[in-house]
Amino acid sequence: MTSPFIHPQFDPVALALGPLKIHWYGLMYLLAFGLFLWLGRRRAASAGLSARDVEDILFYGALGVVLGGRLGYVLFYKPVYYLQHPLEIFALWQGGMSFHGGFLGVVVALWVFARQRQWPPAKIGDFVAPLTPLGLAAGRMGNFINGELWGRVTTGPWGMIFPQAGDGLARHPSQLYQFALEGILLFILLWGYSKKPRAPWAVTGFFIAGYGIFRFIAEFAREPDAYLGILQFGLSMGQWLSLPMILVGLMLWRYGRHWGRAA
Length: 263
What we know:
- This protein has 263 residues and is mainly α.
- The chain is 59% helix and 6% strand.
């Protein structure tokens, strides 16, 4: 029987210039934003947008990711702790972001942007959706480099020991599962689906439901947060938060396919 792989324990600091430290996770955020711009500029003309529009959308989206991601983490995962330590809500350098909160933050930010431009919200949603999964993949790679959000214990040959867990047990490299599912596979499916003309909201719904489904699946291999554990019906918090995404995504997709085209 072969020994399990051991996580390399990468230095979280990619580059140190005196007191300035550039972390890998920050670089993954920059990579995600760069991929968004690159892909967005390739599709801007076909969506009736300019390169400047893509940059403005990215600005609003990035603001929504940071604010929504932090507030989502505070409210969904550690509300009691942050109620007792409110000033730590602003300590972003300590980590703690929620995808589902970031998603809601982006929804609000892009809705505000669409209102300012007097554009249909579906125009923004359907444009942004295919540009997003590769950024999610970059974020999951950042999780893997940091050795955080590791998976549940496994006896499979693909198991990996994460010294950061402190127990020496082989675990699922769930960050890489999410990288592959929510990032690469979802991008391939969504990019192909969105290349053909679709009714309003169909592409947005495809993304929301697709992410929710893949996240729900990946959560079976991901170690639940220690302070939450497994919740009702044997599901994790990530799975409970993904269920409404699946429902809303399917509703939007169905609306786009059947009613949006005739609207």
